[in-house]
Design goal:
Number of helices: 31
Largest sheet: 8 strands, mixed
Strand order of the largest sheet: 7-6-8-9-10-15-16-17
Number of strands: 33
């Protein structure tokens, strides 16, 4: 065989890419000893044991891999015991093993890693997925499988994809379970989701223990259940959940990869177990399809046929990673020797002091080449059963990915993939690696799911807990404006607008909500709604309803529903009747409107004069006569009484447009003036919040309202000017007295209150504009799903008109008809007619430009003929001639017949030029 093909065989033998060869070689031993600690009888251990033995055979049967050196693997059974795992690790390290494959348990890995650090023996674990094992505390721990940090990221993306907000975590209470759920909580937090309830279980929990845990889970609100346990414990959890009726419609169960491991290993499962897991979602570590993987799967039946015990079992993904782990170690040992490494051990003086004990701890030695072997492991690059194998700088496998699986019937259905590169997708990850990463929410995709209860409708993920607990709902116990909310005397019930809206919204919810209304306040003063909302955060109340304005500092403490009424701050003041006066006819228009209208009258008249001057004798004559004619024509169009006729097409176009504008202006002026002279008008010395700020007069507000803080903090009004009131009667008396008699100049309150106040008090009115934009809503704890459902219910009430009916029932009064709601009839602003003025102006400009262009063309033609005949042409003469031409009439003079207009004009121009005689501008022939 040629050297080239030998080299190719070395690099590509059995599908694995070996590390580069080195020119420096050391003497290779015949045997390299490695150890392994797993639980032989576990779901993971039994598969891993067969896979590792097969890998050892494949490595040792190929002399090219290690250059003739053999791997000797010693496997020890931890038997589900962390203590036994530690003892066996000590035994393995007594016999000069260069590395340990395992341990299988994350708990054992934490303990053994400290020993490995001291003795510098690398640990390669294909099953310990605890994210905290990747910390710098464990430099000699190498994870050859996927980290649970990424599995929890996949679950968080699934939760966000279906728009759920809260989940319940059911987990084994050890390092594996706690740290995995901690990673899930961190991942959910980045999605603005959270774990609402944690249900830890003893690692050796009995069925009764699990029953106690699941009963508490059933009483919780969330129906999104994340199960992160060991395979045997997970099966017990779903069995108990099925017994409690928690596998029906409305529930969502997401199992970590323990379930896919069970399905791959023991398929088909017993019918009872299959029934329990219908509709569950589980994850499986993604391993791309390859010829090498298919070949190994075909070998698997032969590898397990001769095994005794519980019968045949399938190959799960942990078996693939266990097989690859042996090959990673083989490649690393080869690189270790190629870089001059030697297998030697040194005694630790501190361990020698323990000589004589039964444990023989003094037999353990430090592996001198441990660091070099560790470096070689982390540099390995190969393609194995699990795909491309390579390590990142933090010792994690590259490109972590998972399959998302839905359990249906007696089988499973893949509904998508998750990868750290692109998130959720229905396309295999290796195809997405060819494209730039794109993680937008619109790009996340999964196929449809059949959920528990055989439904395809995505569960809401939350129900009101059926634990007999009533919601403690705080209600402000008002002493004024009791139409909104009031306690019924002698009972513990409430009535009013806010209460009826709340109960109507509750009736639309698809579940019952037991609640108890609890009064908040001292029954003397109106309570502070901000304090009421704060008590939700302390747990005193579970919610708060009533006239609670949605403002910034309250939204920081609680979640609010959709506003059910708009109610910004307004100013109410005393108003007086405004009598007509001599200049009342000017009030319909603002001064700007009057000015612009007058300017347009003049401009339109000037444009019409220009367009008609040369061809219409009515617009000719002495200058004084033309000015008077133009002014008369301009302003007489207001009454359509102009006597002058327009004969030019452009003049008629401008006049028609202008008469239309005049028609619109007259109509609005007439309507506004009629209203001013016939409708009672109200006026007030306070024009709005701006004039109130500028004055030094006292201002009233409602006790307990956020208006005080807004006026003081946001508008800078000194607190000494602010006067609290508790009732509508106090409002009225203070406004009637005014600042000079110890009252107030105005009251600032929310529009909903003021409209009710004004409905029976016509002597007051809202002045100015509403200067905040608030609404009232019901308050719930942060991230409460009930807030979302109540918002949906309020929107339904609004769409059906029920919300308006409730409003009219409680708040509409007819005594005063709110005629003072506006200070006065609005004056007509210029902006109301700006479109008309712009159109008219553009029409005038267009007509003028067209007229000027035609005039210049005609003059140029006539002037060229006259200059050719006279032989004289100068710039000044040409300008004088053009002005004379503009001022001349286009009609033929008396006594001239049979000549066309062009000939006549040419003669006049010629005469003017040859005689050097100027013609007066604008003076025509009198008829």
């Amino acid at each position: 065989m040629s050297p080239f093909w030998v080299l190719v065989f070395v690099f590509f033998n059995n599908g694995y890419f070996l590390d580069g060869l080195s020119t420096q070689n050391s003497k290779r031993p015949d045997v390299v000893k490695i150890g392994s600690i797993i639980t032989f009888d576990s779901v993971i251990g039994k598969v891993a044991k067969v896979a590792m033995e097969a890998a050892i055979d494949d490595v040792n049967s190929n002399p090219v891999v290690l250059g003739g050196t053999k791997l000797k693997l010693t496997m020890l059974d931890a038997n589900y015991s962390e203590f036994m795992g530690i003892i066996q690790a000590l035994q393995v390290m007594e016999t000069d093993n260069v590395a340990i494959i395992g341990p299988q348990s994350s708990v054992t890995a934490h303990l053994i890693s400290h020993i490995a650090n001291k003795l510098q023996v690398p640990l390669l674990s294909f099953a310990a997925t605890d994210p905290t094992l990747s910390s710098l505390q464990y430099p000699f721990f190498v994870r050859t499988t996927q980290d649970d940090w990424y599995q929890m990221a996949a679950i968080a993306d699934i939760v966000e994809y279906y728009k759920w907000r809260e989940v319940i975590a059911i987990y084994t209470d050890d390092d594996y379970g706690r740290n995995g759920i901690s990673a899930l909580a961190n991942r959910l937090a980045t999605k603005r989701c959270r774990i609402s309830y944690k249900a830890p279980m003893n690692p050796q929990a009995s069925r009764s223990d699990i029953m106690d845990v699941m009963v508490k889970v059933a009483l919780a609100e969330s129906r999104i259940l994340i199960v992160h346990t060991y395979p045997t414990g997970g099966i017990d959890v779903v069995d108990v959940a099925h017994h409690l009726g928690m596998m029906g419609s409305g529930y969502v169960w997401i199992a970590t990869n323990w379930l896919s491991t069970v399905l791959d290993t023991y398929s088909p499962l017993p019918s009872g177990t299959v029934e329990n897991i219908q509709g569950l979602i589980t994850l499986r570590m993604y391993t791309p399809d390859s010829e090498m993987k298919r070949n190994f799967l075909s070998r698997w039946k032969n590898l397990t046929n001769n095994l005794t015990g519980n019968g045949p079992f399938g190959l799960n993904t942990y078996g693939l990673y266990a097989y690859d782990t042996v090959w990673i170690l083989a490649n690393a040992v080869n690189a270790f020797f190629n870089h001059g490494g030697n297998i030697s051990f040194s005694n630790d003086s501190r361990l020698s002091e323990l000589d004589g004990g039964n444990l023989h701890l003094d037999a353990m030695s430090i592996f001198d080449g441990g660091q070099l072997l560790l470096d070689s492991i982390l540099k390995v690059k190969l393609t194995g059963l699990s795909g491309h194998v390579s390590f990142t700088s933090d010792k994690s496998l590259i490109r972590p990915a998972y399959e998302v699986i839905n359990v249906i019937g007696t089988g499973i259905r893949r509904i998508g993939y998750w990868s750290n590169y692109s998130g959720l997708s229905v396309v295999p990850p290796e195809k997405l690696y060819e494209k730039p990463p794109y993680r937008s929410s619109s790009n996340q995709q999964l196929h449809s799911v059949i959920w528990p209860g055989q439904t395809t409708e995505t569960p809401r993920g939350w129900v009101f807990p059926n634990n007999g607990k009533q919601l403690r709902i705080g209600v402000p116990n008002r002493v004024s404006f009791r139409e909104f909310i009031a306690e019924v005397p002698g009972t513990d019930t409430f009535k009013g607008y806010c209460i009826e809206v709340f109960t109507a919204a509750l009736d639309l919810l698809p579940y019952a909500v037991p609640y108890k209304l609890m009064p908040f306040g001292d029954r003397v003063n109106n309570p502070s709604c901000t304090e009421l909302v704060r008590l939700i955060t302390t747990g005193v109340y579970d919610a708060a309803i009533g006239d609670i304005a949605i403002i910034t500092n309250r939204t920081r403490m609680a979640d609010f529903t959709q506003p059910y009424i708009k109610s910004g701050l307004v100013v109410v003041a005393t108003v007086r009747k405004s009598n007509s006066h001599a200049w009342a006819f000017l009030r319909p228009f603002t001064w700007t409107m009057w000015t612009v209208t007058g300017i347009f009258f003049l401009c339109v008249g000037a444009v019409v004069w220009i367009l008609e001057h040369r061809i219409n004798d009515q617009f000719r004559g002495p200058p004084r006569r033309q000015i008077l004619t133009t002014l008369w024509f301009s302003f007489s169009t207001m009454f359509y009484s102009h006597r002058e006729n327009t004969v030019s097409p452009l003049g008629r176009m401008v006049l028609i447009l202008w008469l239309f504008v005049v028609l619109i202006i007259k109509s609005n002026y007439t309507a506004s003036l009629t209203s001013i002279l016939t409708v009672q008008q109200l006026s007030s010395p306070i024009e709005g919040i701006e004039s109130l700020i500028a004055s030094n007069d006292p201002i009233g507000y409602q006790q307990g309202s956020f208006a005080r803080n807004y006026l003081s903090d946001e508008l800078g009004i000194h607190e000494s000017r602010l006067v609290p009131f508790n009732s509508q009667e106090e409002y009225a008396k203070a406004l009637e007295d005014g600042p000079k008699k110890g009252g107030v100049a105005a009251v600032v309150d929310e529009r909903a209150y003021i409209e009710l106040f004004l409905s029976s008090r016509c002597e007051f009115s809202i002045v100015g504009q509403e200067f905040t934009n608030n609404g009232w809503g019901f308050a719930f704890p942060r991230d409460s799903p009930l807030a979302i459902d109540m918002s949906t219910a309020i929107l339904k009430l609004s769409e059906t008109g029920e919300l308006q009916r409730i409003h009219d029932k409680w708040l509409i009064r007819s005594a005063c008809s709110l005629q003072g709601a506006n200070q006065e009839v609005d004056r007509i602003q210029l902006k109301s007619f700006s479109g008309l003025f712009i159109i008219c102006g553009l029409a005038c400009l267009f007509a003028f430009l067209v007229y000027f262009a035609l005039l210049v063309c005609q003059f140029t033609k006539d002037y060229s003929e006259s200059s050719d005949s006279s032989g004289r042409s100068s710039q000044s003469a040409r300008i004088r001639t053009f002005l004379s031409f503009v001022g001349q009439s286009k009609q033929a003079p008396n006594g001239i017949t049979g000549e066309n207009e062009s000939t006549h004009s040419s003669k006049k121009i010629c005469t003017a030029v040859s005689c050097n005689r100027s013609v007066s501008f604008g003076v025509g022939t009198n008829k």
